[in-house]
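Subject: design request, 41 residues
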């Protein structure tokens, strides 16, 4: 999943990959604890 966020080409429709990563992070938060996602950022 990290690669997807780092690769803006994957989502050409959304030039600003800022809003996209936020959405993906939410999905990842469900799988992992928030404290694990915070430091990753």
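Subject: RE: design request

Done. Sequence follows.
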């Amino acid at each position: 999943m990290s690669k997807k966020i780092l690769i803006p080409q994957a989502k050409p429709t959304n030039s600003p990959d800022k809003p996209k990563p936020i959405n993906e992070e939410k999905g990842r938060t469900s799988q992992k604890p928030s404290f694990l996602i915070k430091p990753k950022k």
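The longest helix spans residues 19-31.
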